[in-house]
Design goal:
about 575 residues, alpha/beta, Rossmann fold, 3 domains, six-stranded parallel beta sheet, 21 helices
């Protein structure tokens, strides 16, 4: 019996993706994508996840890919469906996350000005935010071997040397339904993915040793960097100024002897900024969450070196006068053996003294339980060992970075590529779907409401996800910006703070969601974790929250100034 040429091609393409290491495909309902959807669900080497809308699906796939550190495929129908992937594709591009967007399309004769329904221009829709764009031949007009070759090219494009998303646009003609049984192609052995070529960077990094410097580590997902960064900092005697999202402060702090937890807060203080004078600052990971480190290095005219991993998240946002060094963790590790000579222990000790002063303030100053800094500290300190903490933009990630104490057994995930608040719940659900351990999301109310529909996605996926919702009835970050000083003259509360007054308690019981309200730090600690999807709301008074921040920041500034003197 003759086969179905459309499904033969699609099945061969998907089997090659699976052979190259793809294990998950996220589907959304649609008609034009029927061949892709049916063939993906039939391939036993792929686990398929159904999500009802493409925006949620995109961020869910982003979370899965971040957690598994392997490519995840997305399938959608034609029209505006594919456009809903755009925010997740941008984030994947900026943070080097491998996504394979399989967008079904109308055939060429139905495109353009023919008035065909549900048709838009999908060709190269994502512009420079994808590593590659592939226009497939109309389904059924090519061969299974050609489809397999195309998949090999897609796997190469989504991986090294610059990891990121790829769009594959695949036009199909009707009929879209299979003729006979859906073919299933044997995947066979999984082939190892290519690794990036080693750069000749050892001499350049070794040359920085012997000078007074610092290693600033911003958001960083790849655990392979941790050992290399710790070993390099110890060899040169430099402080590691680590963000909470660096995987050094909350995941590896027991091994990072040179770790400085509150570096951004330290260099924010004018006295410390003037007394801690670097000659060279090496930046690793993505762009730091706050501007303090960049301003500090620029203020002292220190040499700035960017360690660029293949995803290259700094390329669009780094300082123009910095030296970029493309390297891998292995390159940095080899540098350690070439470093010789004395190190300036007094320089490192100076940082440690001030860092301990900040930690002492944070543990001794009484804060109301219902304020952003207190909630961030409580969550970070109360999670079980081996837990994963997803921290949302925009105040949540800043509170964790500014006030979260170090520990050594929590992995932190954050979407700091484009720093958008969209898709945070969906991303956390995708991370939880990877089944890598308990997952908690720390999120503010505006970001929560922005992605409210993804609660259903988390329930449908059957994941265990605890969401700590910090609800101060509006966009708290705007109160930290200069526009807040203009008050009623610019209608600040209406146009920027945007109080919503939404009662979220009716979420309790919706599709099995558990909703609780924590009135104290003790209650918050007791309610963390558990099966299913749980929302723990901490209601915060806006003015009380502002006053608590001013109080703790003033105490920290006084301690930093005294320690730096």
């Amino acid at each position: 019996m003759p086969g179905d040429p459309v499904y033969d091609e699609v099945a061969a393409f998907l089997a090659e993706l699976a052979r190259g290491g793809v294990r998950h495909v996220v589907l959304s309902p649609g008609s034009r994508s029927t061949p892709l959807t049916i063939a993906a669900a039939a391939q036993p080497a792929l686990r398929h996840w159904m999500q009802l809308d493409e925006r949620t699906a995109g961020f869910f796939a982003l979370g899965l890919a971040k957690a598994t550190r392997s490519p995840v495929a997305l399938v959608c129908t034609s029209g505006t469906a594919v456009a809903n992937y755009y925010p997740a594709v941008i984030e994947a591009s900026r943070t080097g996350v491998p996504l394979i967007v399989l967008s079904a399309d109308r055939p060429p004769e139905l495109r353009g000005g023919w008035g065909s329904n549900q048709t838009i221009d999908q060709v190269e829709m994502f512009g420079r935010y994808v590593r590659s764009y592939v226009e497939m031949p109309v389904g059924g007009t090519s061969s299974a071997d050609d489809a397999r070759s195309a998949a090999v090219g897609v796997l190469a494009a989504v991986g090294a040397p610059q990891v990121g998303p790829v769009q594959v646009n695949w036009p199909f003609r009707k009929p879209l339904e299979p003729v006979g049984a859906v073919p299933v192609v044997d995947v066979g052995a999984v082939e190892p993915q290519a690794t990036p070529a080693e750069g000749n960077v050892v001499a350049a990094l070794a040359a920085a040793a012997g000078r007074r410097g610092a290693l600033v580590v911003g958001p960083l997902d790849d655990p392979a960097w941790s050992d290399a960064l710790c070993n390099y900092a110890q060899a040169v005697g430099w402080p590691i100024l680590a963000e909470a999202t660096s995987q050094l402060r909350l995941d590896r702090s027991d091994e990072a002897a040179n770790l400085i937890s509150f570096g951004d807060r330290i260099v924010h203080d004018s006295a410390a900024r003037e007394s801690l004078v670097p000659e060279v600052v090496i930046f690793a990971g993505a762009t730091p969450t706050g501007p303090g480190f960049l301003n500090w290095a620029e203020h002292h005219d220190a040499q700035r070196i960017l360690l660029i991993d293949p995803p290259a998240p700094w390329l669009d946002s780094g300082p123009i006068d910095a030296t970029a060094i493309f390297c891998t963790p292995a390159d940095l590790q080899r540098t350690v053996g070439d470093i010789a000579g004395p190190v300036d222990l007094a320089w490192l000790d100076q940082w440690k003294v001030v860092d301990r002063q900040v930690e002492s303030v944070l543990t001794s100053v009484a804060l109301p339980d219902a304020c952003g800094p207190s909630v961030a500290r409580t969550v970070a300190s109360s999670l079980a060992g081996g837990a994963h903490l997803v921290v949302a933009n925009s105040m949540s990630v800043r509170d964790l970075d500014r006030y979260g104490s170090p520990r050594s057994d929590v992995r932190v995930h954050a979407s700091r590529g484009a720093s958008g608040i969209d898709g945070q719940i969906a991303t956390a659900a995708g991370i939880a779907a990877a089944d890598i351990g308990p997952v908690t999301l720390l999120i503010g109310d505006i970001a929560f409401l922005h992605d409210l529909s993804s609660l259903l996605a988390a329930v449908r996926a059957g994941v265990d996800l605890t969401i700590v919702l910090v609800n101060d009835d509006g966009g708290g970050i705007f109160s930290m910006l200069p526009i807040a000083d203009h008050g009623d003259s610019v209608r600040f509360h209406e146009l920027f703070h945007t109080p919503h007054g939404t009662d979220l308690t009716p979420l309790g019981g919706f599709e099995g969601i558990e909703f609780v309200r924590a009135e104290s730090a003790a209650e918050l600690t007791q309610t963390l974790g558990g099966p299913g999807v749980k929302v723990i709301e901490v209601v915060i008074d806006h003015e009380t929250n502002l006053e608590a921040r001013r109080s703790i920041d003033a105490a920290i500034s006084a301690a930093v100034s005294a320690g730096a003197a």
